[in-house]
Amino acid sequence: MSGAGADIARVLRDRIRAAGSIPFEEFMAEAAAAYYGRGDVFGRDGDFTTAPEISQMFGEILGLWCAVAWQLMNAPDKVALVELGPGRGTLMCDMLRASSLLPPFRQAVSVHLVERSRPLREIQARALAGSGVTPQWHDDLTTLPTDRPLVVVANEFFDALPVRQLQRALSGWHERHVALNDDGGFAFTLGPAVPETAVPAAIGPCRPGTIVEVAAACTTVMGELAARLATQGGAALVVDYGYARTAAGDSVQALKRHAFHPVLSDPGEADITAHVDFQALSEAAAAAGARVLGPVGQGAFLEALGIAQRAEVLAANAAPQHAEDVRKALHRLIDPAEMGTLFKVLALVHPALPTLPGFEGSASA
Questions:
Q1: Comparing C-alpha atoms, which of 156, 120, 134, 104 is closest to residue 34?
Q2: Is the peptide bond prior to 135 cis by the omega test (within 30 degrees of 0)?
Q3: Is 196 helix (H, G, I), strand (E, B) or coil?
Q4: DSSP string for residues in 122-167
Q5: Spacing of C-alpha 246 from chain mean position
Q6: Phi, psi at 108, each rounded to 5°
Q7: Where on the phi/psi map is residue 221: left (φ > 0), alpha (ψ -120 to 50), or beta?
Q8: Are 235 and 152 in contact (CB under 8 A)?
């Protein structure tokens, strides 16, 4: 372990020695901040690959969805196009290129990127240098514009936010903590007892040993975002992997070099994520005043918006090897055995907006 990983591991060990143990939620938050602070952790040479890196088609579809959402808002002359956790900037580049098919939308757009990592901001700036826009960066939602509607995209953003883990013991529920073992390594342990009310009511009775995750960081961000949309107008699209309904289980995982990695090993050197609880996100958004659409499977959403037709065009205009790459990318994005059903799409919109493309017939709150 080197660099940021060694630094954050040392910080966490010192904190645990002082306190005896710390909540896993705190461990995950510190590890994630150090991890993304390193810079480019994406793609074939990184630890994991996201949909925008798989194919340009993903970003093109989302960009056109944003343009249609703007049209359904009666085409305001100013709109903030916002991405939460923009990675390398690949998705925003693809969205802007596709949305240029609607020049009035591009003229109305100002681009805003919610990104704390300074190294990633530099990568994003280079990616967008030829896009014709000058992005503005934000540490969080609070500094986004308030004088115009927002069109927001969050792809694999919520899964990286820290989750609180609660574990059922014979004596009741406890916070799941991280301590040090005899070798100085990180290890899970039971922390202080917590009241039954800390567990979401939707979970129901649980056997000893059951782990439940509570994503307060996710629902807080979702509530803030929904409140902004209800006040300013606009729409947001959330794409992530997770549960349609709240469920018990330990979903936290770590990836390093595209392989599963022990969650507590090498903090700051591996990508730690958790399944997104879409029911909790939906309820937080509705409580804050937004209308909720979905969730629907990523495959169904992309197919409804014409990704298969776009793939046919790209394949027809490509060399044989590249045409096969297009077909493989399409399969990975929409097939139920790949990303098609595990990944879900949720929209939240101003209550006055009609149902947006991709959500016709889906449940809404």
A1: 120
A2: no
A3: helix
A4: HHHHHHTTTTT---EEESSGGGS-SSS-EEEEEES-GGGS--EEEE
A5: 17
A6: -85, -15
A7: alpha
A8: yes
CB count within 10 Å of CB 119 equals: 15
DSSP 240-257: EEEESS---S---EEEET
Contact 307, 333 (CB under 8 A): yes
CA 182 from centre of chain: 36
- Whole-prediction pTM: 0.93
Cis upstream peptide for 23 (omega within 30°): no
Residue type, 251: S
Q: Which stretch of DSSP H or E encloses residue 178?
A: strand 172-180
**Which DSSP symbol is given to 75?**
-
Give yes or no for a contact between 73 and 233, defined as CB atoms under 8 angstroms apart. yes
Contact yes or no for 341/278 (Cβ under 8 A): no
Beta-carbon contacts of 312 under 8 Å, excluding residues fewer than 6 positions away, are: none
Q: Token pair of 276, please?
A: 């997104």
Instruction: Report the DSSP beta bridge partners of residue 238.
Output: 154, 346
Alpha helices in 234-306 (DSSP H): 278-287, 298-304
Which residue shows structure tokens 């399969």?
Answer: 331
Amino acid occupying residue 294: G
Give the number of residues written for the chain. 365
pLDDT for position 365: 46
- Whole-number Å distance between alpha carbons of 60 and 327: 16
What are the b/e assignments for 249-284, b being 16+ CB within 10 Å? ebbbbbbbeeeebebbebbbbbbbbbbbbbbbbbbb
Decide: 227 and 289 in contact? Cβ < 8 Å.
yes
Assigned token pair, 266:
């090498």
The reported pLDDT for the residue numbered 49 is: 83
- The pLDDT score that the predictor gives to residue 43 is 65
337: helix, strand or coil:
coil
**Which ranges of the chain have pLDDT less than 50?**
1-2, 365
Return d(Cα 166, Cα 214) in angstroms, integer. Answer: 8
DSSP 351: T
Q: What is the pLDDT of residue 36?
A: 86
Quote the tokens at residue 77.
Answer: 């002359």
